[in-house]
Specification:
The protein has 239 residues and is of the alpha+beta class. It is 25% helix and 27% strand. It contains four helices and nine strands. Strands 2-9-8-4-5 form a five-stranded mixed beta sheet, with helices on one face. A four-stranded mixed beta sheet has the order 1-3-7-6. A hairpin with a 2-residue loop joins β4 and β5. The longest helix is centred in the N-terminal third of the chain and has 31 residues.
């Protein structure tokens, strides 16, 4: 999540990060090609690993990913700053208020790459935004749900540099993973204060990963909109 205006330097930083990931993946691909040429029999007998990435229309727990995007925002907006996983520079807060079969990973504020380490229970799906945006009531002005939803959609048009890399494998065709909250919602539905902030609407690019095997995994993700960007790296310890 990122609600701050990006500048040219921030966008350049994200582009450099994305290029770095691409070069790393290309290097691994060249090495794999060379190894395959040296030992064609071994290469042909090895099965490609199954992709952990779910399609954007696949459901988890009979819940659409559009609905999971709304739940992600209710989770993300339920924290005070001192325990907020989005403001967390290290990942120590990543397990806060997690429940059910889906574990949310936080985005970040600002444009600098954020590097975190997070312990995740086994058998949890992972859901997180490559880049996203939320629109809430502001300054007491009365705005309709249609207007709020339209603003969220407009702000998230023009996404570029969408990045997802899981354990060194880079995934493409990420534009189709756009999700909008199915309807307007109360942004503070899970906030301990019990306050109400309605109507709120969200839009953006999210991915859902199947549960990862026990052990250590690395995820890099991010993206850019005309007014904002984010770049995040996680080391996940699944246990």
């Amino acid at each position: 999540m990122n609600a701050r205006a990006m500048n040219a330097r921030g966008k350049a930083v994200l582009l450099a990060a994305a290029m770095g990931l691409t070069m790393g993946v290309q290097g691994r691909a060249l090495a794999a090609t060379a190894a395959s040429a040296a030992a064609p029999e071994a290469s042909s007998s090895a099965a490609a690993p199954a992709s952990p990435l779910l399609g954007p229309d696949e459901q988890v727990g009979w819940v659409t990913q559009a609905e999971w995007s709304r739940r992600w925002w209710e989770w993300a907006l339920s924290f005070d700053d001192d325990i907020n996983p989005i403001a967390d520079p290290s990942g120590v807060q990543c397990g806060n208020r997690q429940s059910g079969d889906v574990f949310f990973l936080a985005g970040t504020y600002g444009t600098a790459r954020t590097v975190r380490t997070c312990r995740v229970p086994a058998d949890k799906y992972l859901f997180f935004p490559l880049i996203n945006y939320v629109v809430m009531p502001n300054g007491g002005a009365v705005r309709s749900c249609m207007e709020i939803s339209g603003t969220a959609a407009r702000v998230t048009n023009g996404a570029e540099m969408l990045v997802l890399e899981v354990d060194g494998v880079r995934y493409g065709d990420l534009q189709r993973h756009r999700q909008a909250s199915p309807e307007c919602f109360n942004a503070w539905a899970r906030h301990p204060s019990g306050a109400r902030l309605f109507p709120t609407a969200s839009n953006g690019y999210y991915v859902m990963l199947k549960p990862l095997t026990r052990g250590r995994h690395t995820i890099n993700f991010g993206g850019a909109l005309p007014r904002m960007s984010q770049a995040v790296s996680y080391t996940l310890i699944v246990e």
